[in-house]
Amino acid sequence: MRAICFMPATRLVTIAVLSSACIVSPAYADIETAGDVVAVAIPAIAYGSTYYKNDKAGRQQFYYGFGTNVATTLAIKAVVDKERPDNSDDDSFPSGHTSVAFQGASFIHKRYGLESSIPAYIGAGFVGYSRIEADKHDIGDVLAGAALGVASSMYFTKSYDDQLHVATTLSPEYYGLTVHYEF
User: Fold this and answer.
1) Do the beta carbons of residue 42 and residue 104 sit within 8 Å?
2) Are 94 and 76 in contact (CB under 8 A)?
3) Which residues contact 46 (CB under 8 A, 6 or more apart)?
4) 41-61 pLDDT, tens per residue?
5) Residue 92 phi, psi (nearest 5)
6) Which of 27, 103, 110, 128 pairs with 164 at a CA distance of 20 to 30 A?
7) Which residues contact 101 (CB under 8 A, 6 or more apart)?
8) In Å, how far from its chain's centre is CA 110?
């Protein structure tokens, strides 16, 4: 049996989720505030993990994934104009809080492994729950935000441990194969 060891940065996500849960009372405002804190903490910790591991390539991949996620989320919100359940505005679809939380969690997952990302995914799930409880989103908004966040990281992020890279070049004049191995 193998023990699960979380990297130190993801321990901070666990602490953030647990401490947020401790301050939560039955009032919706407290759940919403805790969700807001965790929604910021997860991508911040994912980004910070690239410094912890001295991972410049990962940092660049995080920029691409995060930027794409935020831009796509805001563009969809502008086009869809779905009213929030609490009728406060028309920016309900998709959930931006959930998309950034899941983008950070899936970045950790894809770059550093599933075991490292478990606390972040739990926190991202809490963020989605908090948005529904606060009456800011319905389940469809949250699921769409989660899907956008995961997709943006999975597309732009490569595993930290991948050392072998193979690429093909195909054109009418040239066929090639490039193999690159990092030592």
Assistant:
1) yes
2) yes
3) 9, 62, 103, 104, 105, 107, 108, 120
4) 999 999 999 999 999 999 999
5) -75, -40
6) 103
7) 38, 39, 42, 43, 123, 124, 127, 128, 149
8) 10
pLDDT tens track for 126-156: 999 999 999 999 999 999 999 999 999 999 9
Q: CA 102, 85, 70, 156: dihedral to nearest 10 degrees?
A: 40
At position 16, the amino acid (one-letter code) is A
- Listing DSSP states for the chain in one string gives -PPP---HHHHHHHHHHHHHHHH--SSHHHHHHHHHHHHHHHHHHHHHHHHHTT-HHHHHHHHHHHHHHHHHHHHHHHHH-PPPTTSS-S--SS-HHHHHHHHHHHHHHHHH-HHHHHHHHHHHHHHHHHHHHTTS--HHHHHHHHHHHHHHHHHH---TT--EEEEEEE-SS-EEEEEEE--
Q: Quote the CA–CA distance of 160 and 139 in Å, as a whole number.
A: 33
106: number of Cβ within 10 Å: 26
